[in-house]
Amino acid sequence: MWGLNHWLQGTPIPAHSVPERIAHLLHSQTTIGWDSFLLGQWSKHWTTLQLQYLQRNHIEVKRQNHGLSWSSNIIRLMWDHCYKEWKTKNIARHGKDAEDKAQRRLETAHRSIRDLYDLKPRCSLQAQRHYFYPTVEDHFRKDTDAHSLENWLETYQPMIMQNIRHRRTNSDRRLCQIDGVFHLIRTVPPRDPTPTMAPTQRTPTVITRPINTYFLPHRITSPTPTLETTTTTARTTSTANNPTTTAL
User: Fold this and answer.
1) How many CA atoms lie within 13 A of 228 on its CB side?
2) Is the distance from CB of 109 to CB of 149 less than 8 angstroms?
3) Which segments carry the region annotation Disordered (predicted)?
4) Which of 21, 78, 119, 225 sits between 20 and 30 A of 97, alpha carbons compared?
């Protein structure tokens, strides 16, 4: 397993230390990839060398110790070992039953939040007041369950890291934050950094209008003159313009 050890350590295989009888195997498996070796993609030279080993030690060649069956059994054995190691590590990290898993979640959240509070002095004063509690113990007394702590981490951790990167960039450019020069005076109590999901309620807007704008003013129109009235008016005008006209 020289090739696998060197691949895991990230070091090249020294050519002078490789025995000649397995040099072709190492070259072939390196070409395929040692990560593929862990996935079950083996070179055919493995079965050839296994047959030579059996013949050299005068071991009876059987189906179980030679050929495709032998390589398949070795791959399955290797996978079973990797699965057991993964399962053991998973139980140690996340717990075995529901109660143990909840306790591990709480411990993981506490550890992550303590790491963020260690970075609190590297944040701006405004970020310290807005994102953090006065102490980490106050935070744990406020949020006691794992769900609330994970919600806080998911909401504020990206903002905290962005604030730290922003301050580092300004420091490299020799820019000073305004809260580092002037003392901020707060006229309102500090905001509770616990994220809330309650929707805001809006007060309906009532538009009032004068009552006289709801009614149109009454429009007075003169009556339309009739045909008889128009004829009489025309005759009177004609007589007034011709005084010498006499009636027959």
Assistant:
1) 0
2) yes
3) 217-248
4) 78
Residues 89 and 126 in one domain: no
In a domain, 171, yes or no: yes
Closest CA to 192 of 138, 137, 150, 145: 138
d(CA 155, CA 139): 15
Structure tokens at 90: 């998973």
Spell out the per-residue pLDDT of the chain, length 248, in tens.
667 777 778 887 776 777 888 888 888 888 898 888 888 889 988 888 888 888 888 888 888 888 888 888 889 999 999 899 998 888 887 778 888 888 888 989 999 999 999 999 999 888 899 999 999 999 999 998 989 999 999 999 999 999 999 888 877 666 555 555 555 555 445 556 655 554 455 555 555 555 455 444 544 445 555 455 444 554 555 554 555 444 43
**CA 28 from centroid of its chain's CA atoms:** 43
Report the number of distinct structural domains present in the chain.
Answer: 2
Q: Is residue 204 part of a domain?
A: no
Whether 236 maps to a domain, the answer reads no
Residue 77 sits at the vertex; the CA angle it makes with 72 and 81, to the nearest 5 degrees, is: 150
Examine the domain organization and report whether 47 and 73 are in the same domain. Answer: yes
- The total of other beta-carbon atoms located within 10 Å of residue 109's CB is 21
Query: What is the domain extent for residue 125?
Result: 99-180
Please give the structure tokens belonging to residue 79. Answer: 């996978």
Query: Is 57 in the same domain as 107?
Result: no
Residues 110 and 168 in one domain: yes
